[in-house]
Design a protein that fits this description.
Blueprint: H1 2-26, H2 36-71, H3 79-96, H4 100-104, H5 108-134, H6 139-168, H7 172-192, H8 200-220, H9 224-254
Helix pairs in contact: 1-5, 1-6, 2-3, 2-5, 2-7, 3-7, 5-6, 6-7, 6-8
């Protein structure tokens, strides 16, 4: 029992670290120019949804996949269950992002990012817990846990933010269906890398490309006045950095050498 408790604590801390890194990577850049209280409220809803979604994925997909890979036989995970679980998660996310406080500020993308971080964090937590329980300690296990803790929240945040972006464009059913498709692929690949680490080669490039596009989705959620202020702030910061660099160069040239 104590061992299971320790493994749960490790998986929980790992997931929280991934959620923190996911928040700092995108949301902090635009801090103060989007509806922060609404984004935080979506963290709460994401934890609730992610807890149920993650546990169902763990039972119906992750464990059967691990057992199939370990024994080389038995029943594989039912693909219908995979599609249904991802579809239900996408529909519930859709209704969470359609709340009045989200629509009033056109903050579907930022709220989607926060919602996805929490869902992905809970998903990552149960997958890490499964890996720690069923694997022996080695370098591969450390690498797998590290990548899961970092990428699971961010990948789900990208999917939910993309869903919010499509909702912002008025494509409601397209948002649900595409988010379902991406979630299915996301779950399958994360289940696959537990037994075949080479799968990270396919996950990382897609995540990096989508992560760059997500900055444009977050930008679209910022009001016009906020965009103008942000451009002014970034321009002022660029000038200050340039002046500081020039000043540093002039100072270094003006200081006489010790030999002189």
């Amino acid at each position: 029992m104590a061992s299971d408790l320790l493994l749960f604590q490790i998986s929980s801390v790992s997931a929280l670290i991934g959620m923190t890194l996911g928040w700092r990577g995108v949301m902090t850049r635009y801090s103060g120019f989007y509806d922060l209280p609404t984004a935080w409220s979506n963290i709460f809803w994401g934890i609730l949804l992610g807890g149920i979604y993650g546990s169902m994925i763990y039972t119906e997909i992750i464990i059967p996949t691990i057992e199939f890979e370990a024994t080389g036989g038995g029943e594989i995970a039912n693909p219908i269950n995979l599609v249904l679980l991802c579809l239900i998660a996408s529909i519930i996310s859709h209704f969470i992002l359609r709340r009045k406080r989200v629509l009033s500020g056109s903050s579907q993308t930022t709220s989607g990012w926060a919602l996805g971080l929490a869902i992905g964090g809970m998903f990552g937590m149960v997958v890490i817990y499964a890996v720690l329980r069923l694997s022996e300690f080695n370098l591969q296990l450390v690498l797998t846990v590290t990548l899961l803790s970092i990428l699971a929240p961010r990948c789900e945040a990208i999917i939910s933010s993309y869903q919010g972006q499509m909702m912002l464009m008025g494509r409601k059913w397209g948002a649900i269906l595409r988010a379902t498709m991406w979630r299915c692929g996301y779950v399958v690949m994360f289940a696959y890398v537990l037994s075949a680490p080479i799968g990270w080669i396919f996950i990382l490039p897609v995540m990096l490309i989508a992560n760059r596009a997500s900055e444009d989705w977050i930008w679209n959620a910022i009001p016009k006045e906020g965009k103008k202020q942000l451009r002014k702030i970034w321009a002022r910061q660029a000038r200050e950095r340039k002046i500081a660099k020039i000043s540093e160069q002039v100072t270094s040239k003006s200081v006489p050498k010790e030999s002189e």
